[in-house]
Amino acid sequence: MEKPEKLIIDGKRLDGRAPEEMRPLKIEAGVLKRADGSAYVELGENKVLAAVYGPREMHPRHLQRPDTAVLRCRYNMAPFSVEERKRPGPDRRSVEISKVTRQALEPVLFLELYPRSVIDIFIEVLQADAGTRTAGITAAAVALADAGIPMRDLVSSVAVGKIDDMIVLDLTKEEDQWGTTDMPVAIVPRKKLVSLLQMDGNLTEEEFKRALDLAFRGCEQIYQAQRQALKEKYAIKPEGE
Amino acid sequence: MLYVQNREMVVPGQLIAEDGYRVHEGAFREGKFVYASVVGLADLREREVRVIPLQGCYVPKRGDVVVGIVVDSHYSGWILDLASPYAGNLFVSDLLRRKVDLVREDISQYLSMGDVVVANVKDVDERMRVQLEASEPGMGKVEGGKMVELSPMKIPRVVGRKGSMLNTLERIGECKLKVGQNGRIMIWGRNQQMINAVVEALLMIEREAHISGLTDRVRQMLEKIKSKGGK
Amino acid sequence: MYEMISKVRRDYIGDLARQGKRVDGRALNQYREVSVEVGSIKSAQGSALVKLGRTQVLAGVKIQHAEPFADRPDSGVLIVNAELLPLASPTFESGRPGEDAIELARVVDRGIRESEAIDLEKLAIKSGEDVWAVFIDIYALDHDGNLIDASALAAMAALLNVKTPEDEAWTLPGLPVTKKPVAVTIAKINGKLMVDPCLDEENVMDARITMTTIEDGSLCAMQKGGIGCFSREELEQAYELARAKSVELRAHLG
């Protein structure tokens, strides 16, 4: 695709959004039967599934920790999730994302309650349109809660970036490709703590602060949607009523 | 001060109470604030806060009755799967309630792979190593019957307040139940149709555990099936 | 593999941090002794050995012909690889790069790539067919903490040390290096921020943040690590530290 001349025209982005506006977000909890917990997230054109298994017995046994559960995480993109077929299996990018995702979620978990066990998080990106790692974290946090795993808080995540020298919330693939900066952020909402922060591109001091502002605001919206999704899952009516 | 209603649905990290509340399972304290740690129903009684979880795995506690499945054996006993991250160990002497001379006696005659055992959790150490015993009459290897697996978080509802739900199930369903805290329930009875009705009732309890008036709905359902010729 | 650290040690380092002190007596904003030695590997086009105290990282640069990526036919190729050698620590195992090695390589890569430190457009030879590929291989030789900063500094020093390849296709006066990105890693222990964590500090830290800046003080890459969190104020404080310290580190690049 050719680079568009401008990514922001008259204050509007190519998909019509304002700079601080997030794409439409849908979160659903408990979408998989076999998993102990699961969640599905759609953010714009992103479609991401997360499943949690555990706490369960850790195999191989030498990986057990005598005093705590081990958290494992696998972020993976489906071969058909991107324009050009992605070779199946882990690549360097997904290995790194798996690691930072795990570290973004671990601070809220009471892992010490389950010595010698393991909690597995599987994130599958079914359709990608930039911001898949943050959508994955958002989904995984809901899936962990859905599995009944004790948590201090949820974790909410979104990316901010810079396009046409302007800081904007929640980049699309187009904006990520032609913009200059991408900054994925995850936040533990109650205490307003940052549990994931990555950045590539270029930010001045003022831009960095503005980017954090937008990330906090975006995560607050995501947090509300996460809570809503969890409450909705269990708000069923008894039969015959 | 309270921030939620009694029986209100809460999510992890949600503020429940402030100042002077005792904290029980499903909740945690940070400074003077009490938050939920799991998705569930806030249970607020006097100055006590707990969250009744809607999901979660079984973690063995001393004194629990559990229904285990034999998955391995060793020199002096068996390993039982407890539908939990932690397996249980059952020594042959704790199964037979007597001393056993391992040199003279072939213990493989007592249990084999796949056998179902009702047992009591004798001890759990800080590393979550679980010792079991078949300490009471009615415990030990299970013969016959039907097994149902529910989310262990729903077991308190299967028992009900002071055993009321269990009572209803056994009386109207004309069955004998053995409820494992780990979510496995054994059912014995003469009337196959009523056994099936009780299974259905258990699944209904699992589905609707957090909605009030459950005991009445279960009673109605069982009586309806019974009147249609469950006898 | 994780390192078991005694509770006594953990408490000791934590208590020191609370008082604004460190195990090796440094100030919170003080790096260990930095040394950069370039050109020691003759078989590489450029090389650098960086020491941060007892941490040692060797970076070697090789420049070779390669096919360009299909979507960038007129752009050279940059490839950063890192290996945590078993000789560098009892916790490193041989075999394919694990997640720590991959993260390390990608953090170094982002600093160089995103700052456009190398003008890759100048490295085209024949459009769509032949370009120069710059391979940076990072070799961790001794792991006493903060491999990221040592590796990023070694990579930049090695790039600046590159001697032009003896190949008639090479027409440039030298490798077009236009910027000097510098990574500064800040650890958080007991709520205190400190630069350049040594191994003991890494083993007990709550979290770390690496901020890579260029000459004008703006950011070109960031990476948070560890299982703890940062508040907004801490991040802004970390940025101040990173900018100040990057000036010192950059001075070692000549």
Let me know the CATH homologous superfamily of chain C: GHMP Kinase, N-terminal domain
Low-confidence stretches of chain C: none
The chain pair forming the largest interface, with residue counts per chain, is: A-B, 39 and 33 residues
Instruction: Report the CATH topology name of the largest domain in chain B.
Output: Ribosomal Protein S8, Chain: A, domain 1
List the quaternary state of the chains: heterotrimer
Give the strand content of chain B: 25-35%
Average pLDDT of chain C, rounded to a whole number, is: 94
Summarize the structure.
The complex is a heterotrimer of chains A (241), B (231) and C (254). Chain A is α+β, with helices and mostly antiparallel strands and 241 residues long. Chain A contains four helices and eleven strands; from the N terminus they run E-E-E-E-E-E-H-E-H-E-E-H-E-E-H.
Write the layout of secondary structure elements.
The complex is a heterotrimer of chains A (241), B (231) and C (254).
Chain A: E1 8-9, E2 12-13, E3 25-29, E4 37-43, E5 46-57, E6 70-77, H1 92-105, E7 117-127, H2 132-146, E8 156-163, E9 166-169, H3 173-178, E10 181-188, E11 193-203, H4 205-234
Parallel strand pairs in A: 6-7
Antiparallel strand pairs in A: 1-2, 3-4, 4-5, 5-7, 8-9, 8-10, 10-11
Helix pairs in contact in A: 1-2, 2-4
Chain B: E1 9-10, E2 15-18, E3 22-23, E4 27-30, E5 33-36, E6 40-45, E7 48-53, E8 65-74, E9 77-81, E10 88-91, H1 92-96, E11 116-124, E12 130-133, E13 140-141, E14 146-149, H2 155-159, H3 164-173, E15 175-179, E16 184-189, H4 192-208, H5 214-230
Parallel strand pairs in B: 3-7, 10-12
Antiparallel strand pairs in B: 1-6, 2-5, 4-5, 6-7, 8-9, 8-11, 9-10, 11-12, 11-13, 14-16, 15-16
Helix pairs in contact in B: 3-5, 4-5
Chain C: H1 7-18, E1 34-38, E2 46-52, E3 55-66, E4 77-84, H2 99-114, E5 124-126, E6 130-142, H3 147-160, E7 182-189, E8 192-195, H4 199-204, E9 207-213, E10 219-225, H5 232-251
Parallel strand pairs in C: 4-6
Antiparallel strand pairs in C: 1-2, 2-3, 3-6, 5-6, 7-8, 7-9, 9-10
Helix pairs in contact in C: 2-3
